[in-house]
Each structure stands twice: as structure tokens, then as C-alpha cells.
Amino acid sequence: GAGVSQSPRYKVAKRGQDVALRCDPISGHVSLFWYQQALGQGPEFLTYFQNEAQLDKSGLPSDRFFAERPEGSVSTLKIQRTQQEDSAVYLCASSLALGALYEQYFGPGTRLTVT
Amino acid sequence: AQTVTQSQPEMSVQEAETVTLSCTYDTSENNYYLFWYKQPPSRQMILVIRQEAYKQQNATENRFSVNFQKAAKSFSLKISDSQLGDTAMYFCAFMEDSGGGADGLTFGKGTHLIIQP
């Protein structure tokens, strides 16, 4: 079946612009995670959802970052007033349920470049 | 907070050789899971192998196996009979077992593995 998809794959934004990154999880997957991967680094956890409920947003780096999953399926990560330090690959992952027993399936990521 | 350390930024071996990637972690938790993920140049992260901390037996998946030393907080990945397709970034990751909850994965910085023909 189809995997996790993300769009756009590449995004260039001028500093100060708002951006919205989309994640389409695997159908039926309850849990959805967002990670930020800076160049040459491992991914860092941002936030996760169980259905439409955002259960943990402790990893969001500032209040300019906002994530939503209103119908418990597609999720959007929004970054307001982008800064150069926001340049990174944003990875989305979904899993059948919460818990480490359930494998997280990752999307291809959105590479954000802030100029 | 948990930390994951991968001390080998890059490794290069010849095809068919065996290679071991190192990973250490720090946690005060007793129940957790450890993972190795592979990220090929196309960037889609793929789970390679998983180890439950409560299991003493080391996990194996075909050519991939781990050496899990809980007391030493060490979790190395061994790749046997390496293939060109194994060339990728490899990330060690940790997740606390919070009884059905999740805090997301904590990743190391990765090891770039290059398999030479």
C-alpha cells in the first residue's frame, strides 16, 4: 500500500514568510509524529498526535511552530515568520498505534530552505 | 532526558566484509526500546532492527544483528556480508516504554556507512 507522503518535497522561503508543510500518513495509522533534521544531524522530535489530539508538543522549538491534525488523518506543520535557523528537513512518521512496539514509518521529508 | 551517542561519523568497508557500528545511550529508565534506522540517499528512513531492553537475547534480522549490553548502555549494529545497497546513514535511536504512550524517538547523529565495490 501507499506509504507516508509529504508535500512539498522542497520549499524555499524568504525570511519572515509563513510556510505550511503537509503530511499524509498511512491510512488507518492512529499516531503521527513530526521530526526536524538539520544538515548532518539526526532527526529531533517535535510533536506527535494520537488521532486528532496533540499529546506532546514539547519538542517544538518556538511558538512560531504550530502543528494540527484536525480530522485525525492529514497533518500540517506550520512555521510562522521563518528564520534561517528553521532550515532543515522536516520528517513525518506514522504508526498503527502509540507505543514502541509499533513501527514508525517515515515519509521522504520536506527540505525547507530559508533565505 | 535521554541521549544517544554515535562516535563514528563515517565508516567505509569493502563489499562482503562485516562491519560494526557503535552506539551508546544514557537513560535513567529501565524499560525502553532501541532501534537502528537506515536512511539511504533518497532520505526515507527505514527501520532495520529493534531491541526491547527487557530481552536478554540480541535481536537479529537476516544479515543484521545487534550486540546489546544493558549494563554498559551499549547497542552496536553488526552488518554481515555487506552489500553495496547497505550504503546509507545509520541512526541509532531510543524510545522510552511508557506503557502504551510515546515520547517520540531520540536519535544519535548518525554514521555514514560506505560500502566499496
Structure in words:
The complex is a heterodimer of chains A (115) and B (117). Chain A is mainly beta and 115 residues long. Chain A contains no helices and eleven strands. In chain A, a hairpin with a 2-residue loop joins strand 5 and strand 6. Chain A starts with a strand and ends with a strand. In chain B, the strands form three sheets. In chain B, strands 2, 5, 6, 10, 11 and 12 form a six-stranded mixed β-sheet that branches. Chain B is globular and about 45 Å long. Chain B starts with a strand and ends with a strand. Chain B has 117 residues and is an all-beta fold. Chain B has no helices and twelve strands. Chains A and B meet through strand 4, strand 5 and strand 9 of A and strand 6, strand 10 and strand 11 of B.
Question: Any descriptors?
Answer:
heterodimer, A: 115 residues, mainly beta, seven-stranded mixed β-sheet, four-stranded antiparallel β-sheet, B: 117 residues, six-stranded mixed β-sheet, globular
Mean pLDDT of chain A: 94
The radius of gyration over CA of chain B amounts to 14 Å
Query: What proportion of the residues of chain A is helical, as a percent range?
Result: under 10%
Regarding quaternary structure, what we see is: heterodimer
Distance between the termini of chain A: 37 Å
Order of helices and strands of chain A: EEEEEEEEEEE
Q: Output the radius of gyration of chain A.
A: 13 Å
- Separate helix tally of chain B: 0
The shape of chain B, in one word, is globular
Quick summary of this structure?
The complex is a heterodimer of chains A (115) and B (117). Chain A is an all-beta fold and 115 residues long.
Q: Secondary-structure map with pairings?
A:
The complex is a heterodimer of chains A (115) and B (117).
Chain A: E1 5-7, E2 10-13, E3 19-24, E4 31-37, E5 44-50, E6 53-56, E7 65-68, E8 75-79, E9 88-95, E10 105-106, E11 110-114
Parallel strand pairs in A: 2-11
Antiparallel strand pairs in A: 1-3, 3-8, 4-5, 4-9, 5-6, 7-8, 9-10, 9-11
Chain B: E1 3-5, E2 10-14, E3 19-21, E4 24-26, E5 32-39, E6 46-52, E7 60-61, E8 64-69, E9 74-79, E10 88-96, E11 106-107, E12 111-116
Parallel strand pairs in B: 2-12
Antiparallel strand pairs in B: 1-4, 3-9, 5-6, 5-10, 7-8, 8-9, 10-11, 10-12
